[in-house]
Amino acid sequence: MLLPCVLVWPYLTELDAAREQGLVRPDAAPVSGRTADLAGSEWESVGYVTGFLDTLPAPPEGTEIVDVGFKVTPGDGEASTRLADYCRFRALDGEGRAWQPTNEFSLRNLAEDPGRVMGGCTGGDWEPIPAGTTQSLVVTYLVPAEVADDLRFEVTVATSADKAAPRPEALLFEPELLD
């Protein structure tokens, strides 16, 4: 009777430690509507667009560029620091496949005063977003063309200021496709 506990206990302990360290993705809470609170910050999904919107070389054949817009407002200095330290994004399709953001097309100017989203979410100057200030963020993905019109977007943010144990939580947005 004790054998299953002895075998499972170390696995569960290691899994909890990995979740606290941000090594295992948290389950994303679905968002109904456009806004939600996460780790002391208010998030709004603005929507997303597909297609190539610039004069840079086009993406490879069979792929599509997807740009999703968010606005984030940290409620206090701690939330601002957590955003700068640990803020991640993923695009997901209905089959559970996931794509990470790309910086290959990041030189395009798609928003006025866009923030930075590589590694953490910061202002355009790479500094933490001031508390109470709304920052626009544009996240770019390169995905197979057949999934570009049917994506959901995951936002993961630290809930702890401890860089060794950020204890991330996540939201799953289903923004509208903009024309």
Which descriptors apply to this entry?
four-stranded antiparallel beta sheet; 2 helices; five-stranded mixed beta sheet; alpha+beta; 179 residues
In summary, what is this structure?
Helices cover 16% and strands 32% of the residues. The chain has two helices and nine strands; from the N terminus they run H-E-E-E-E-H-E-E-E-E-E.
Report on the structure:
Helices cover 16% and strands 32% of the residues. The chain is built from two helices and nine strands; from the N terminus they run αββββαβββββ. The chain has a five-stranded mixed beta sheet. A hairpin with a 2-residue loop joins strand 2 and strand 3. The protein is globular and about 55 Å long. The termini are far apart. The model has no long low-confidence stretch (mean pLDDT 86).
The DSSP helix count reads 2
Determine the strand fraction and express it as a percent band: 25-35%
Instruction: Determine the N-to-C terminus distance.
Output: 60 Å
Mean pLDDT: 86
- Sheet/helix structural class: alpha+beta
Instruction: Report low-confidence residues grouped into runs of 5 or more.
Output: none
Helix/strand order, N-terminal first: HEEEEHEEEEE
Number of strands: 9
Q: How is the quaternary structure best described?
A: single chain
Helicity range of the residues?
10-25%
Helix/strand layout:
Blueprint: H1 2-21, E1 28-30, E2 35-38, E3 41-50, E4 63-74, H2 77-85, E5 87-92, E6 98-99, E7 135-144, E8 152-157, E9 169-173
Parallel strand pairs: 1-9
Antiparallel strand pairs: 2-3, 3-4, 4-7, 5-6, 5-8, 8-9
